[in-house]
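check these tokens.
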Amino acid sequence: MKVKTILVSQPEPIIENSPYFELIDRQKVKVDFRPFIHVEGVSSKDVRAQKVDLHDYSAIILTSRNSVDHFFRIAEEMRYKVPDTLKYFCLSEAVAFYLQKYVVYRKRKIYVGKRTFSELTPIIKKYKTEKFLLPCSDVLMPEIPEILDGLKVKWKQATFYKTVVSDLSDLKDVYYDILVFFSPTGIKSLFENFPDFEQNDTRIAVFGSTTGQAAIESGLRIDIQAPTPETPSMTMALEKYIIEANKKK
């Protein structure tokens, strides 16, 4: 069956040259963006209940922009003056760059990984005497605690924000040829919003093995998967599938 409409379960890209917009132009398909999940901050009271005192930590591990936003939000709520000596260990350059929203970048001790958490570990390993705080979501990749435990560093995980299912009730009678998912929570959101969802001719695209596993466990048929050696990005995987599907008569 031909592909004409796609729903991506993420916010619309804010950059003009997004690969999704190029996909729309090249393949003449309609692509809508709608977050199936969103983030809500927990209160400083909830953070204290996790036995977290920000004064106890000399280093912060930041894995996303959300972790940056909510660390500084909680710091403000707790009336904690972030010291100039605090060390920031950022998962990627994008996260580190985002820190400039809150601190004068050149005056801070900021250490940056390349892209994955395992690539950040050699840097963390050099600072074993620090006490690390990992402000994160209630949904954390299991390998992160395993890696930190393996480094034998002093660290604590604390939930500063939660991933929450979005209300999608307005989409009840809307049909798309392809639904695109990037996390197990997105799959969960689909079925929480539409318990009677039946896939039928809807194609399901998933990014990552954990998302794929969640889709299979929910009884979905996966039609498009990324990343693969041939299609390392979701847009590449979608375009490859669309070209094949739409050339058929």
The first strand starts at residue 5 and ends at 8. The radius of gyration is 21 Å.
